[in-house]
């Protein structure tokens, strides 16, 4: 006689019970949700990095404009 826990019993094939199938389905759903959330977070992080680059470019542009405004009178005053 095969093992009663996992094998065939009384000539019937082994089957999975509904609670186990529900748990497996729920685990699959959680994994899909987690993967989707991870993908969205990666996209948000990428967007934040691009935004940060643009912000620093703007800061450097303003600093360059201020330095240019400060140096321009010195250059025009010297013969």
Please tell me about this protein's structure.
The chain is mainly alpha-helical and 79 residues long. 76% of the residues lie in helices and 0% in strands. It contains one helix and no strands. The longest helix is centred in the middle third of the chain and has 60 residues, at 18-77. The N and C termini lie far apart (108 Å).
Name the quaternary structure: single chain
Query: Residue share in helices?
Result: over 70%
- Helices and strands, in order, run as H
Number of strands: 0
Rg over C-alpha atoms, rounded to the nearest angstrom: 33 Å
Low-confidence stretches: none
Q: So what's the overall shape? A: rod-shaped
State the gist of this model.
The protein is built from one helix and no strands.
Features:
79 residues; 76% helix; mainly alpha
Secondary structure elements and pairings:
Layout: H1 18-77
């Amino acid at each position: 006689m095969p093992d009663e826990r996992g094998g065939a019993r009384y000539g019937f094939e082994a089957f999975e019970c509904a609670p186990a199938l529900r748990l497996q389905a729920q685990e699959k759903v959680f994994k899909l949700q987690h993967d989707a959330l991870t993908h969205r977070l990666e996209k948000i992080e990428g967007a934040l990095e691009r935004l940060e680059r643009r912000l620093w470019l703007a800061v450097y542009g303003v600093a360059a404009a201020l330095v240019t405004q400060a140096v321009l009178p010195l250059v025009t005053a010297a013969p």
